Amino acid sequence: MLPHQLELLAPARDAEIGIEAVNHGADAVYIGGPGFGARATADNSVQDIARLVQHAHRFNSRIFVTMNTILRDDELEPARKLAWQLYDAGVDALIIQDMGLLEIDLPPIQLHASTQTDIRTPEKARFLQDAGLSQIVLARELTLQQIAAIDAALGPKDAPGRAILEFFVHGALCVAYSGQCYISHAHTGRSANRGDCSQACRLPYEVKDSQGRIVAHDKHVLSMKDNNQSDNLRQIIDAGVRSFKIEGRYKDMAYVKNITAHYRVLLDEILEERPELGRASSGECTFFFRPDPDQNFNREFTDYFVNGRKEDIGAFDTPKNPGRPIGYVTATGANFVELQTDDLATVIHNGDGLCYLDLQKELVGLQINRAEAVNKKGLWRVFPKDPMEGFKDLRKGVQVNRNRDMDWVRGLEKKSAERRIGAWLRLEESASGLTLTVTDEDGHSGQATLPGPLQDAKDPNQAENKLRENLSRLGDTLFQPLDVALNLNGPRFVPASQLNALRREAVERLEATRAAAWHRLPRAKPVEPPVPYPEDTLSYLANVFNHKARDFYAKHGVKVIAAAYESHEEEGEVSLMITKHCVRFSLSLCPKQAKGVTGVQGTVKAEPMQLINGKEKLTLRFDCKPCEMHVVGKIKRSVMNAVPSSPVKFYRTRPATPA
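and the corresponding structure tokens:
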């Protein structure tokens, strides 16, 4: 990928979704392999990935495979073998978290730094670039100014080995800095750093202050709204980002189609405005629907911290999809609800999903079995699939939202996009016959010849039109005609069967030329001698889980290296989550904003709070200098006993030395 190119990077749960991501405009797709990916139930076989690679490369789109869990020592060799299998399948890059992978015999494939590597500073980003990472995923919490500072630290964009900056622009948000959350492992033994997060952040909590007073009851105070940077793309580009990542390796086909198409449209508009920028793959998309992010599951949207801290980033009332308001209840019956829509054009369908907030502000879902229009003034009678007695607090005047539109869903179940590469066709006559040359927008050509002699056309006035019309019929090929040029000695008649065969042969040769011209992205070379890591001491937060990772950091000058939290060497209370989200700020209790706070602003530490969910209790500690919140707790004894730790032991009091 060149420094002026913009890459739209889409997720894929499986190969079929990945193929549709490419068809809907993705310049690259990231997908999980058969193991070691940070989404434990989104695995795919190497054979399926190879099939996706073959389709993507036809458009010069790239396939990145996630190998971004932390690894035990006994997993390094299986990971090495898998990396070679993926390389042989044509995969373009591996997305990694564990630096131990840089110390083993990997194939010459690009390595990208996962979001799990927690890249928040220019120093960390520059180090990973100098260590040989070609693309780095920045932390979601960064502001535009922080992104620009990281971009500047990487040096000139056209310098050899210069890393590409990647940034999440859409999808679900982890409340923690990625790679810095251990609540799931501490409470359940399911490690987020090993792809098996239990999502404690989506649970409801009672929040108590330091004096035991309840300040929030049954609120999802760690649950964030969903990320949506649609309005910030130009500023993000100007800050230095070149790869625009959509979250969602667990998401369904409709989500990937819709969101990929949405950002394809937005980025193409920018490319039209900015001729100095280019697209990272080939072809243009035609969509048979109107992309709309509101139609997919979402917890409402936020642009998070890109434009600075805001109060409304949390989905505190519910982690579910609230949908769009469509009207209000006018009456209820024994087996039906009457709804008055806000817009007369709104059509309610059988199978639609509706929802509303009960008196406790809990979201209640209602699936429609049958919907009937009562009149032409927007009044509808809907018959729920479930008995009416199950819908608490559903009464006259309640606002109703729609969170699933079956008409929309069915539309995306059909073919919803077509991607074609522009091509010029030129038919030339010579003494030996006709030669058709097809040249695509990337400069590749395919040629076929029809030997003479040629026949004169009986109808000269229609001859050229018929030839152009026939040659333009590129049908189900990758290509769409941009122009058809004829260079003939006079009006000629060519039988349709011969012209069709000529066109097919030229297109097949063009495809073969494109395939032969495909090249693997080069692996970046690490700087020698090894550059020093920005710190000389690493705590459990560095996620070092094997000896090769330890050797990597030791080689880069780190003196003291602690084991990863999953090694079970941290038995007392520690930070189980570090986050830029602040519960105090969101509840309007921030001491920086309150009157009468003593101490110097920026250094004050707020009094702790407590989160309670059933028997689970966590402490919130607030570090106001960096404006961060720590969720503090300790690992359960049952987890210590039941979940095997890494056989690797680290001794933090002993300096690390290179192996």
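(Above: one complete record from the training split.) DSSP finds 14 helices and 32 strands in the chain.
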